[in-house]
From TrEMBL:
Protein name as catalogued: Putative cell adhesion molecule 1
Name of a matching Pfam family: C2-set_2
Record keywords: Disulfide bond, Membrane, Signal, Transmembrane, Transmembrane helix
InterPro entries per record: CD80_C2-set, Ig-like_dom, Ig-like_dom_sf, Ig-like_fold, Ig_sub, Ig_V-set
Length: 287
């Protein structure tokens, strides 16, 4: 008879763990920090508390902590045991599970289940929390097509109008994968992105290809890195030292035919060139 009773209790316990993903809370915390997971207890609808159990994982079977004032139990279990602690005041309507020195491996779904002596039908006894561990990128690097690092706000060039320019921006070892955006002034530029994962962290790499034109004269190109782990976005920038051809060349000073032996003054006007054009005069083929 005792064996049958134990089997029924086990079935009822696991039946309580039908997790509603829409109802779960989400907490994001930077790695190495302490996090507190709160489990509210509706004592008005549920009555007197018997025990609170914490589980880890989507299946709700990996118990990591248990508290019971009636049984004088306050235990933590599993690999996280030394970093876990339970905080509960007798008669209180909240139980807290504190996890110190968080690690990437702590990211998971955590479930709290309250067991009550005589609960009402409307007693909600299960709380689920998705814990996300954040890691700030260790560094952001902006480089040219040869892989040479470009110092922040440095000048790149001289570059030629019509040439193809390749820039690379990398954000290393972040979690989740850092987001990279390219920008020229207020205009976003489209890059080609790649993400690599190792040991639970991600390195994001983006390649920007530009066909240089007059619109890139003295342009500032920004690589902007965003991550929930960063208090503010990080930016690396380069200024393009672009050389462009003249847009117009004109010669003035003679409006009509001139008589042999007459002194005339000619002007050659070169517009739109960068750097300033060098002008050489020729008489036929002779300078």
């Amino acid at each position: 008879m005792a064996e049958k009773t134990f089997q029924m209790l086990t079935v009822l316990l696991f039946a309580a763990f039908v997790i509603n993903a829409d109802a779960q809370d989400t907490i994001s915390i930077n790695v190495h920090e302490q996090v507190t997971l709160s489990c509210p207890l509706d004592l008005r609808a549920c009555g007197r508390l018997h025990s609170v159990k914490w589980y880890r994982g989507a299946d709700g079977r990996n118990r990591i902590a248990v508290y019971s004032d009636d049984l004088k139990v306050k235990n933590t279990e599993g690999p996280q045991q030394e970093r876990l602690s339970i905080v509960h005041t007798t008669g209180g309507d909240v139980t807290e599970l504190r996890l110190s020195a968080t690690q990437i491996s702590d990211e998971d779904l955590y479930t709290c289940e309250g067991t009550f002596i005589a609960p009402e039908d409307n007693c909600e006894s299960v709380t689920t929390i998705q814990l996300n561990i954040l890691v700030a990128p260790t560094k952001v690097v902006l480089a040219d097509e040869n892989g040479d690092t470009l110092p922040h706000n440095s000048a790149l060039g001289p570059l030629r109008e019509g040439a193809q320019l390749l820039l690379f921006c990398e954000a290393f070892d972040g979690r989740p994968a850092p987001k990279i955006t390219w920008r020229q002034g207020e205009r976003n530029l489209k890059g080609s992105d790649n993400i690599a994962e190792h040991d639970g962290v991600f390195t994001s790499r983006s390649e920007l290809s530009l066909t240089l034109s007059r619109e890139h004269l003295n342009a500032k190109i920004d690589c902007i890195v965003e991550s929930p782990a960063l208090k503010r976005m990080r930016t690396e920038s380069v200024i393009l030292d672009l050389q462009v051809r003249p847009t117009k060349i004109s010669v003035t000073g003679v409006q009509h035919h001139v008589v042999q032996g007459t002194r005339v003054t000619l002007q050659c006007i070169v517009q739109g060139a960068r750097p300033a054009a060098n002008v050489t005069w020729y008489n036929s083929t002779r300078p």
